Structure formats: C-alpha cells, structure tokens
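User: Predict Enoyl-CoA hydratase/isomerase family protein's structure from this.
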Amino acid sequence: MSEYIHTSISNGTGLIVLDRPKALNSLSLEMVRAITRVLRDWRDDDSVAAVLIRSSSEKAFCAGGDIRFFHDVGRSTPQGGSALLEDFFTEEYSLNHLVHFYPKPYIALMDGVVMGGGMGIAQGGVRIVTDKTRMAMPEVNIGLFPDVGGSYFLSRAPGALGYYLGVTGVTINAADALYAGLADHYAPMADRAALDAVLSATPGAELVSALAAYAATHNAGDSQLAADRAAIDRHFSAGSVPAIVASLKADDSAFAAKTLQLLSTRSPLMMSVTHELIKRGAALDVADCLRMERTLVRRNFENGEVIEGVRALVVDKDNAPQWQPATLEEVTTEMVQGMFQPVWPDYAHPLRHLSTPQGHRGV
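Assistant:
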C-alpha cells in the first residue's frame, strides 16, 4: 500500500482515504496502483458491500495527477517519453475504467478541490458534492486536455456545457456540478457530524439509499451555470473554437468578456483539441474514450505543450507559457487531427483489454 492511501473495512463498507494533503492528494503512480489493488481485492470480498472513497483533508478530494512528475520526467526524456510516464497514464486510465464498471456501489465524497485525476476516480461512481466542492477539468490551462474519461462525461453534459467546461477549464461549485450532471447528491460539510454518522452507522448494502435520503434534506442553492446556460449554449454550440471566440466577440455582455479573457490564457492548440475530443467522445463508450485519450496523451507529451504549461504555471510560476502555436489563428485542422492519429496498432494499444461489461450500456 502507498503511504498516501489508507484502507479499512467497517460495517460492510470498504473505505479508501486519500492522504497526501500537502499535494492536495495529487495522484502518483504508487497511489494509482494502491487504489487499483484494493478495488480488485474488494471486488470478490463478500465482507465489502460498498466502497467509499474520500480525503483525509477538507481542502481537497484530489487535485489531479502529479503534474510536477509529468514535467520532470517528460522534460528529461526525448519527445516527452518515459516508461514511468507511460505506465502512469495507462494504469490511471485503467483505474478510471475499473471505477466506471465496478460491480459494487462505489461512492466518492468530493469535498474541497476536485480536478482532473480526481474527477477520474469519482465520475464513474455515486458522486457526493459539498459546500466546499471546487470542481474543474482545467487541463487546457497547462497545455493538456480533459482526460481520465473527460471525453465521456463532458460530452454527456446538457447542451453545450461540456464544451464550455472543457474548453475554458472554469471552476464550478456543488450547485453547478449537480446542474451539469457531474454530481448526484449534495451534503454540506457544515453538517459534517450528521454526514459522518450516516456514513459510519449505515451498513454498506444500504449506504447509497441512506446517502440519497440524507442529501434530499439539503439544498445546494442556485447554479451559476443555469443562469448562464442560454449564453453558454449560444456561444459554445458554434462548432469550433474560432467560431466560439467570434460569437463571444459579437456579444457585449459581462459573461462574454469574462470568458474571452479566460480563453486568452489557454493553449490555443489544446483548446481546439479539447473541442474535437468532446465531439468525438459523444459517439464512444467509456473504453473507447479512454483509448482515444491514451493516444492523445502520448501525442501531447511528444508535442511538449503540457511540459511548457506546467513549467510556466507550476514550476517557474512566471504565468507566461510560450504556447505553440501562440495564437488560435495559427492552429490548423491538420495540427488538431494529427494529435488523434494512432500511436499503436489496435492489437498493441496499452488499453486494448478495456471493454464494456455485459449488462452495461455501450454509450
């Protein structure tokens, strides 16, 4: 087991606690392996009726993958390739698939910061958000794209919300997450003792229904996404990132101005790649979405955009990434489509073993 992952079984519930608070529970390869190992063990353990995953800290459920690791390993090897980097994404995406099709109730308490990889270990289960939830798929901010199944769950958000969340990387709260279909229940941490009582006293076999009943007595409030929905659908249904920007520029609203400013800081190439990713993801099942993302992440590190993004925002902190290309106007269709070109033949793809289990819908 990883020193950052603690597990226990009580009252029929298998508990996984993420405990790397100084890094906001950013996932390392060791942590991914530890979670995978225990989920595989509990899959056939009759003493475990349900699984609950949560954080030891109120600050963050999980802020994503360990991007400093991505930067250090990617920068030190030709074209951003390394066995450790390859293993991380292959095993992380395999874990995401395991969560989506886990045969027992899998419940994620998404308290605090929930971004990137944190979404990947939550979105396939029963998703509980709190008054402290700060959720995002902010990868375009560091020259990456919404992975860990983002092509699947963002493409299934209502209207153009998936394009908006993926292309902007904006952070949302609990009410927004519920509205966008990225959460199931709301449980405020202001009433933490009552929530902990439900979690500890309820037998695992009854935990999902007990949480639903508990959440039904609490209201997450109004959603800003709901208030902005008409504008989001109008602009982000435009068909491409340049068309979205043109639509926003023709709008003199505060929403348009704020969104344009946000887009101006993101990687032009990866915004366009993200738009294409979400478009493609709408027609794919979970396994095929993860395979597509696995190909894309290899291309992304070969390209080097993510290494530059992490350097600028996390390592050097100069907040001045030198994106390539530097402007949206320079991004060509060939550049975007090239990122999706196969890296491996189908029989050698590192996620070739993933499938949709019988009894589950394919899309």
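Residues 5-348 form a domain with the 2-enoyl-CoA Hydratase; Chain A, domain 1 fold (CATH 3.90.226.10).
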